[in-house]
């Protein structure tokens, strides 16, 4: 028998999906949560209650604290306060490592708020996988392109893409899994393709730097200048200097950026007479692309050194693709659609993994099959449980423990490992129900842990986790695939 | 989603060595699959990189624009080369195609002034 193009693509779809599926599931779930990174960060810092000020006051407090306590860092990288994040998030070089803290809106000090990574954990895990540079990013980039491959082969393998869209036959074992897989795949297909390819683009310099190295060789300053023309590179002079007042500067920046908001502030050589302050706009109103507008000021005199507004078509296209992935532009409705589409991508991966085992469960079962069915359960239930555990760890650990942020992250990986181990040793059908029960319970605890919600963010966290808990409880009614097919 | 694994797909048609229908792959099958994976992943990446280099050299665009467009082309090229390698009738053909494409792209890049 001569294999058809479709059959060979179906084979490739199945096996590449199996190999990369578990990793993609973790990346997808972390990315889905990152859609609400600022909101999660706020939820994880309940100390913010009653400490809110307007954005510019908070920025000035942060700059004041950094000037007093981190003046000799080579640079400060600040995420400016905005309506979504009411505090400044600062990263700076502290000796050999990087310090990263949320700074109190009133005083600018980091120790008023509990030490946590907040939503930053999911965001970082999404593309760094908690691995040292560059390995995490390389693996994430390859996974993104693998997802492109899996989606393309899936489209080819799928015979009746439009007809199956209207087909769902529940309670029919493997057939139902396939229907669900098709439905989830088709309904958000443009999103899946977009998010996979733009995901690869955000990490393009990790895996496909060859065009760049051919044209720029080692000329990094030309690259920096071409890439963001308003970046000013100035060596430290060695002479001390004190930063200009931020109040007038911020007013000027808002005037230039209007109607867009301020996203990021970078201060290089903050205590030197050659200090430079760079501001980036957030694409909130005028378009999708990231970093479309940049302003650089002299740090001492406050004189505007350079301004760049992105009008170059190819660069604008690149920033547009990048912006589609990170969705900084998105208003709340779009943001929720990103969240739901992300969840549907996760479900698409889960049903795909489940199909692999349900197709093979009536055959001779080797070691490979047993490993896959157990890893499936461990990853499908372990990932959400571990991520949910992060929310609980944030509330349960004493607020001012030493190394608290690292302990929260450690809790995630301990829970993950425990569930994976449990799924390895337990009978699969029992493990399916029991791990789902644990996941459901963990999500339920999140929704109850804060008592009655006070703010919209607390309501959203409670309701979403309650919804997921109910879904997982519902999923317990189904044993995955051992039923005889009717 | 295609026929179940042993009766269709790239494996069975390539291997006449199977004696009975089981899930187990013969040594020959494994070798062929490994050959295709290597052609798709390794050779595909080689082609994608060469496409990025050649187009960076040859596109009549400003330096930054050529960099961006060539990188995007390289990125999309890789998964497509993997598909090509698995769609090819035999693993040897897959390798042949990869090498042909790679040589063409490398020549184009060298003509465009690229030196490895």
From TrEMBL, chain A:
It comes from the Bacteria. Keywords: Membrane, Transmembrane, Transmembrane helix. The chain crosses the membrane at residues 12-36, 138-163, 183-208, 336-356, 377-393, 405-423, 435-453, 459-476. Pfam families: PepSY_TM (PF03929). PANTHER family: IRON-REGULATED INNER MEMBRANE PROTEIN-RELATED, PEPSY DOMAIN-CONTAINING PROTEIN. This is Membrane protein.
TrEMBL record, chain B:
The chain crosses the membrane at residues 31-54, 66-87, 94-114. Keywords: Membrane, Transmembrane, Transmembrane helix. It comes from the Bacteria. This is Iron transporter. It comes from Acetobacter indonesiensis. The lineage of its organism: Bacteria, Pseudomonadati, Pseudomonadota, Alphaproteobacteria, Acetobacterales.
């Amino acid at each position: 028998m001569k294999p058809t193009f479709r059959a060979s693509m179906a084979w490739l779809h199945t096996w590449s999906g199996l190999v990369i599926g578990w990793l993609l599931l973790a990346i997808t779930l972390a990315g889905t949560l990152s859609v609400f990174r600022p909101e999660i960060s706020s939820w994880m810092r309940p100390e913010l209650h009653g400490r809110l000020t307007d954005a510019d006051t908070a920025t000035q407090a942060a700059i004041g604290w950094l000037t007093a306590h981190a003046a000799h860092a080579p640079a400060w990288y600040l995420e400016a306060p905005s309506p979504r994040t009411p505090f400044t998030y600062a990263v700076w070089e502290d000796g050999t490592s990087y310090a990263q803290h949320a700074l109190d809106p009133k005083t600018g000090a980091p120790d008023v708020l509990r030490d946590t990574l907040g939503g930053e954990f999911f965001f970082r895990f999404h593309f760094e996988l908690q691995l040292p540079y560059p390995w995490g990013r390389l693996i994430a980039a390859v996974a993104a392109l693998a997802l492109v491959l899996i989606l393309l082969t899936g489209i080819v393998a799928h015979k009746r893409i439009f007809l199956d869209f209207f087909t769902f036959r529940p309670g029919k074992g493997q057939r139902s899994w396939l229907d669900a897989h098709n439905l989830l795949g088709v309904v958000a297909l443009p999103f899946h393709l977009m998010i996979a390819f733009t995901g690869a683009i955000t990490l393009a310099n990790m895996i496909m730097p060859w065009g760049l190295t051919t044209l720029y060789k080692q000329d990094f300053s030309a690259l920096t200048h071409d890439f963001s023309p308003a970046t000013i590179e100035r060596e430290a002079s060695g002479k001390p200097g004190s930063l200009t007042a931020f109040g007038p500067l911020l007013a000027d920046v808002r005037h230039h950026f209007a109607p867009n908001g301020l996203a990021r502030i970078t201060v290089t050589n903050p205590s030197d007479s050659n200090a430079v302050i760079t501001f980036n706009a957030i694409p909130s109103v005028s378009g999708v692309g990231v970093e479309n507008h940049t302003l650089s000021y002299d740090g001492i005199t406050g004189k505007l050194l350079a301004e760049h507004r992105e009008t170059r078509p190819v660069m604008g296209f690149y920033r547009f693709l990048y912006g589609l992935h990170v969705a900084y532009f998105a208003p709340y409705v779009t943001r929720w659609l990103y969240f739901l589409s992300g969840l549907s991508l996760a479900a698409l991966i889960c049903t795909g993994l489940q199909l692999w085992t349900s197709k093979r469960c009536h055959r001779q079962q080797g070691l490979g099959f047993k490993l896959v069915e157990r890893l499936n359960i461990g990853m499908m239930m372990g990932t959400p449980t571990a991520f949910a555990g992060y929310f609980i760890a944030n509330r349960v650990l004493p607020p001012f423990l030493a190394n608290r942020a690292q302990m929260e992250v450690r809790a995630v990986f301990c829970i993950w490992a425990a569930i994976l181990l449990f799924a390895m040793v337990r009978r699969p059908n029992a493990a399916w129900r029991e791990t789902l029960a644990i996941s459901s319970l963990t999500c339920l605890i999140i929704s109850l842990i804060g008592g009655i919600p006070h703010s919209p963010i607390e309501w959203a966290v409670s309701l979403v986790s309650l919804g997921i808990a109910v879904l997982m409880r519902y999923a317990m009614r189904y044993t995955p695939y051992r039923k005889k097919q009717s | 989603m295609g026929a179940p694994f042993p009766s269709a797909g790239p494996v069975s048609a390539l291997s006449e060595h199977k004696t009975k229908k089981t899930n187990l792959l013969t040594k020959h099958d494994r070798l062929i699959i490994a050959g295709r994976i290597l052609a798709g992943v390794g050779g595909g990446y080689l082609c994608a990189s060469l496409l990025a280099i050649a187009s960076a050299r040859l596109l009549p665009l400003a330096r930054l624009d050529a960099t961006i467009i060539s990188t995007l082309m390289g990125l999309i090229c890789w998964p497509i080369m993997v598909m090509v390698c698995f769609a090819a009738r035999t693993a040897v053909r897959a390798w042949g195609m990869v090498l042909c494409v790679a040589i063409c792209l490398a020549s184009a890049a060298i003509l465009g002034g690229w030196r490895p």
